[in-house]
Design a protein that fits this description.
The protein has 2 domains: 173 residues, Aspartate Aminotransferase, domain 1 (Alpha-Beta Complex), CATH 3.90.1150.10; 252 residues, 3-Layer(aba) Sandwich (Aspartate Aminotransferase, domain 2), CATH 3.40.640. It is built from 16 helices and 14 strands. Strands 2-8-7-6-5 form a 5-stranded mixed β-sheet, with helices on both faces. Strands 9-12-11 form a 3-stranded antiparallel β-sheet. Strand 3, helix 5 and strand 4 form a beta-alpha-beta unit. The protein is globular and about 60 Å long. Bound molecules: ligand PM9.
């Protein structure tokens, strides 16, 4: 064995309480998967061993956050926890005005309703399911302006979340800047595999949009993870802290939607944050229609307190290095076993390339949906489809056919151990060994909105 040459990453916490897991047999998993219509979203969580469905709301709160719950001020109006959250958002992210929402999509609904008019174009660095749906429901059309590299799982470009300014310019020339209410810019682009945008690219975007009077609305759900990659990969940022980088990213945008269930390590919560008083005034008014009063937005006081504390913890360098370190650990294991994954390894999970894994299954037979089901059947590990099912249909009813057909192994924050990651990689490798025998699925039930959550499938038996 070779001698170590560097300190490896490790968790900056120790475990005080554990949640026991149920182990299942292959027969139990077969029954559970059939009952779930081959959709991992429809499994009961008690039938799951290692749950990598999502990193959303599934993180382990710290002792500080749990203490914060006891400090909940459950007044209907003016809860002190709201003011603490507002102060924290101003201090850590720098946005001026805060409207809390029950989770990210609540904020997406409000900002889309305020800024988008029917017929508008909303360019962005790859779609996200709920974000694009709210843009479409408000009458807008999403246009993907992420760089081409993002659509290629093998391309190792370090900032695959970057925006192609030529693509943006084409839209401005074709439709005019007045038809573009904002650029929908995500940090750590989820559907591309958790890929970061660079500060250089964001600064160029800022200069361009400012010239044309177009806003940047930031999906900051995983901004701290994006900051980690900037610190590791972007020249000039290697000595800046995560907190400094996060603040700089936010300073280049006009407002943000946040699902605090990710970066901020809470089980529920989100917000809309803006710098523009007029937008804030309208948002503060609309939130009472859809979420709740502007000082709670659908949340309990205790939820806002846990969020304020979680935001501060999320920008700690030690936390984020261990968080991304664990994701990279799993990814490197998968690569060792020859499993095709999206590269470079992203911030919140490993994205397995189902097109490469199951090349004999056409996209209409849902290779990623199939693979997620097979992994569960093998070991009780729950993952999620991020391909043609997630992409859904266009407003005209046609299917979207994304280039990326992926299975996401999403890692909850501060929840699983390195040994769990070993089991996940081993199970994936074992399914890889028998990949030629795997058959695709057909969809037998399709809901109208966000079909991936509730669609049902059957195995194709031919
Ligand atoms: N993301 C995820 O698992 C949960 C729902 S979709 C399976 O990745 C971004 C980048 C997200 C996100 C949710 C939302 C919506 C907005 N932007 O789920 O409404 O990743 O809090 O946030 C999920 P909420």
């Amino acid at each position: 064995m070779s001698k170590p040459t560097k300190h490896s990453w490790a968790e900056p916490y120790k475990i005080k309480m554990v949640e026991l897991l149920k182990m299942t047999t292959p027969a139990q998993r077969k029954k559970a998967m059939k009952e779930a219509g081959f959709n991992t979203f429809l499994l009961r969580s008690e039938d799951v061993y290692i749950d990598l469905l999502t990193d959303s709301g599934t993180g382990a709160m710290s002792d500080q956050q749990w203490s914060g719950l006891m400090m909940g001020d459950e007044a209907y109006a003016g809860s002190r926890n709201f003011y603490h959250l507002e102060e924290t958002v101003r201090e850590i992210y720098g946005y001026k005005y805060l409207v809390p929402t029950h989770q990210g999509r609540g904020a997406e609904n409000i900002i889309s309703k305020i800024l988008i008019k029917p017929g508008d174009i909303v360019p962005g660095n790859m779609y996200f399911t709920t974000t694009r749906l709210h843009q479409e429901l408000a009458g807008g059309r999403f246009e993907d302006i992420i760089i081409d590299e993002a659509h290629d799982p093998e391309n190792e470009f370090p900032f695959k979340g970057n925006i192609d300014l030529n693509k943006l310019e084409k839209l401005v020339k074709k439709y005019g800047a007045k038809k573009i209410p904002y650029v929908s810019m995500a940090t750590s682009v989820n559907m591309a595999g958790g890929q970061p945008i660079s500060l250089k690219n964001l600064k160029e975007l800022r200069a361009y949009t400012k010239k044309h009077g177009i806003r940047i609305i930031h999906d900051m759900t995983r901004v701290a993870e994006n900051a980690h990659f900037i610190q590791q990969r972007e020249k000039g940022y290697e000595h800046k802290t995560i907190r400094e980088i996060v603040k700089e990213i936010c300073s280049l945008t006009n407002g943000a939607t946040m699902s605090a269930k990710k970066d901020a390590i809470v089980n529920i919560g989100g917000f809309l944050a803006v710098n523009d008083w007029d937008v804030f005034e309208e948002a503060r008014n609309l939130v009472v229609v859809y979420e709740g009063l502007h000082t709670y937005g659908g949340l309990a006081g205790r939820d806002m307190e846990a969020m304020a504390i979680g935001i501060r913890e999320s920008v700690s360098d030690a936390h984020i290095h261990a968080r991304v370190g664990q994701v990279i650990y799993l990814g490197e294991k998968m690569i060792e076993y020859g499993v095709p994954i999206v590269k470079p390894i992203g911030g919140h999970g490993i994205f397995v390339d189902a097109k490469k894994f199951l090349p004999h299954i056409p996209q209409d037979h849902f290779p990623a949906q199939t693979l997620a089901a097979e992994i569960y059947l093998d070991s009780g590990v729950r993952t999620m489809e991020r391909g043609v099912v997630s992409a859904g249909r266009k407003p005209n009813g046609e299917n979207y056919y994304p280039k990326l057909e992926l299975v996401r192994f999403t890692i909850p924050r501060r929840v699983y151990t390195q040994a769990h990651m070993d089991v996940v990689a081993e199970s994936t490798a074992m399914v890889f060994e028998k990949r030629n025998k795997i058959k695709g699925l057909k969809m037998i039930y399709e809901p109208k909105y966000l079909r991936f959550f509730q669609a049902r499938f059957e195995r194709i038996t031919d």
